[in-house]
Amino acid sequence: MFSKTQDFVQSRRDVLKTSAAAVWGSFVLGGLAINLDAKEKPMILANPAKKSSLVYLNSNENSLGMSPNAKQAVLDNLDNSFRYLTYAPDSARTKLAEMIGKKLGFKLENVLLGNGSSQVIQAAIYAFINQAKLNKKPIQLIVGDPTFEYAEFFAQPTKIKIVKVPLDKKMDLDILSMQKHAQNFKGISIVYICNPNNPTGTTANAQNIDKWVKKAKSNQTLFIFDEAYGEYATNFKSALEYVQAGHKNILVSKTFSKIYALAGLRVGYGIADGEMIKLIGGYFEGNKVITGFMEWDNMNYLGTYAALASLADKDFEAKSLEANKKSKEMLTQTLDDLKITYLPTQANFLFYKVKGDLSTYQKRMKEAGVVVGRAFPPLLEWNRVSMGVPEEMQVFVSALKDFRTKGWI
Questions:
Q1: pLDDT block averages, 10 residues each, the chain of length 409
Q2: Are residues 247 and 284 located together in one domain of the fold?
Q3: Cβ contact 155:162 at 8 Å
Q4: 400 with 361, same domain?
Q5: 292 with 344, same domain?
Q6: Could you tell me if 297 and 321 lie in one domain?
């Protein structure tokens, strides 16, 4: 499907001429110019954020906050943040892509930077759908149910078929059933696999994935592996090895939002075969720009510098993993003591069973000072809680124990 660049590249100008692309073919981000005198800069950014009376354990963020090195990088580059990042060989954007590639074992041509990994997923879905329409082939999206919803949300405006496959009896993604849906479809299937899965925290069966990937035809099955939580997983096989092995129908998305604590600065990336990267993100042909489905100026200036500093800070990554481990141990011990059912997690959150109405439970938790995760239909008797720092988890487990005395959980 991606053998010849000229076969699949269509400029955004052409795409926007179609009615469908008017809905989903463009992406616009706002910018904010900041002019701050250097002598005022430390005074403003050194002030810590005001402490909230609530403990937020609802969005799988790293409650440690960004590393000190990342904060310093933001400080050092704030004065120039009114400028766009360029694609020059010595630009921060290019350096970040090269640094990611070097860490993971890929060339620059295999790395696509995004304004968060969600933008990479969004652009990929639109690129795949557009290519199928150009080739007059039917296309569908296959997702687990429940899973992280963005792939489904991005596909909805395009009106393609969306297949939601329930989890298996172990509450894992049902890879075999997803495969059957792809094999029985007379067209192209986009397969979204969040691994570890959100909200369950479980990892998909590696053997089943391996058999499917190696059997699937690259012009019929396109895989998007969302590995936002891969850094936390200890029992996990990354799909990056399939890209390294030469599979041209694999996109792996990753993010700086989770373990690197840069959620608000919006930095993510995708790893794929070079031709797929061109299809999704566009490319230069001499002085000519061949546009894909992502803006050229999509990267957050300060986020890029913070990501560079974060990627080099091995101590912070280790500290984040250790804090997550301690919080998980505290939480699972409490759940075991209270005999509350939960799933073994490979991420920085945990999925556990609640008693009674979920919305009532969420309201009571907020009144107790903790904001827990949203609903994930159809599993409305379950709740997701993020791993905060140990001090935050102490507030949560204390609330759980209090709820038990009141018969609420």
A1: 42 36 34 34 40 89 97 97 89 97 98 98 98 97 98 98 98 98 98 99 98 96 99 95 98 98 98 98 87 92 98 96 97 98 98 97 98 97 98 98 96
A2: yes
A3: yes
A4: yes
A5: no
A6: no
Could you tell me the pTM of the whole model? 0.87
The predicted structure's pLDDT at residue 285: 85
Asked if residue 189 lies in contact with residue 218, where contact means CB atoms within 8 angstroms, the answer is no
Enclosing domain of residue 384: 314-405
Of the candidates 265, 291, 312, which is a domain's last residue? Answer: 312
Helices within 49-104 (DSSP H only): 68-77, 92-104
Residues 331, 228, single domain; the answer is no
Within this chain, do residues 137 and 201 fall inside the same structural domain, yes or no? yes
Question: Distance (Å, rounded) from C-alpha 366 to C-alpha 331?
Answer: 18
- For the chain, the domain total comes to 2
Backbone CA torsion sign across 356, 359, 361, 364: negative
Backbone Cα Rg of the chain = 22
Element (H, E) at 151: helix 150-155
Q: Are 299 and 322 members of one domain? A: no
SS3 189: strand
- Is residue 143 included in any domain, yes or no? yes
> Do residues 409 and 383 touch, judged by C-beta distance below 8 A?
no
Query: Distance (Å, rounded) from C-alpha 173 to C-alpha 35?
Result: 48
Sheet with 111-114: list strands edge to edge: 111-114, 268-272, 250-255, 221-226, 188-194, 139-145, 161-166
**Roughly how many angstroms between the first and final C-alpha of the chain, as a whole number?**
52
Report whether 326 contacts 361 (CB < 8 A). Answer: no
The CATH number covering residue 389 comes to 3.90.1150.10
Q: Is the peptide bond before 166 cis (omega within 30 degrees of 0)?
A: no
Beta carbons of 376 and 199 less than 8 angstroms apart: yes
